[in-house]
């Protein structure tokens, strides 16, 4: 089965696919950004922690008399501060932290002060310990701040990522729903309507007939059958495309001139059938005559001046009468109409 999707639905699907593609790109970008940033966040916090631990180790080693080791740790603190200064701006989220300064300025100032105290060699142990403790608190505060910013950023980025994924999933569900509705609608249409003329098919007409013929509230009930005159000749001479155009034009004209309660179906080929609830035989004949006149007015450019005509058979339907019996009578009337010269109406009551 080939599904024919309407232009309107096709546009909807294309828009949704475009948005889905956009959300996929955004989601992929966010995932890459989160992974990259997580690395830098870890690096910033790691070096901030090294500075925090280093400022106390330097003093402890100095007091213990291990000058060489103390100097080595001091160099490590300098290196960590340098790397931290270079990487700390990776914590910034452009639209949130554009004007904020994340540089470890206080830590640097405190560390420089502590180094001078150590290098002077005149500071007493108590002063060095106090200065070291102050630097540790400043470093700890800075490290906690970086940790807080990193956690905020991860939560924000993950929130954006999961929002993007949720929207993408909703778009996928919407796409599935639209396509599903189109498929179901197509199957329902195919089950009930003639694909060429878009009027009811024979099976649907049978369902309506069964319901109406068994309910007395729809009586009097009448049946019209009509057939396009010389339709085979039109197909043979002008081609099946023109023949299809004739059938569609006739169906449109007939639908336009029927009531909403009337049941109109394509019976087969160029033959159509109409069930008229609450319509007696005289009224059915008047309706058939109106349809006959309207059909003869149809103009098909490919046919030139050639007229389209139809022959009609009209008959009443009796309560609980089988469709086969009623159709047989209407068909007999239609045959008689053709036998008498076509483009006319014949009645069998």
Query: Total domains, how many?
Result: 2
Task: Quickly give the structural class.
Answer: alpha+beta
Uncertain stretches: none
> What general form does the structure show?
rod-shaped
> Strand count, sense and closure of the main sheet?
5 strands, mixed
Provide the β-strand percentage band. Answer: 5-15%
- Number of helical stretches of at least 4 residues: 10
In round numbers, the mean pLDDT is 89
What is the oligomer described by this structure?
single chain
Topology as a string of helices (H) and strands (E)? HHHHHHEHHEEHEHE
The level of helicity is 55-70%
Query: What's the number of extended β-strand segments?
Result: 5
Distance between the termini: 43 Å
Neighbour order of strands in the largest sheet? 2-3-1-4-5
Kindly provide the radius of gyration, computed on alpha-carbon positions and rounded to a whole number of angstroms: 44 Å
Draw up the topology in text.
Blueprint: H1 7-64, H2 67-87, H3 94-97, H4 105-120, H5 125-192, H6 202-213, E1 221-228, H7 231-238, H8 240-256, E2 263-268, E3 271-276, H9 281-296, E4 310-317, H10 323-339, E5 345-347
Parallel strand pairs: 4-5
Antiparallel strand pairs: 1-3, 1-4, 2-3
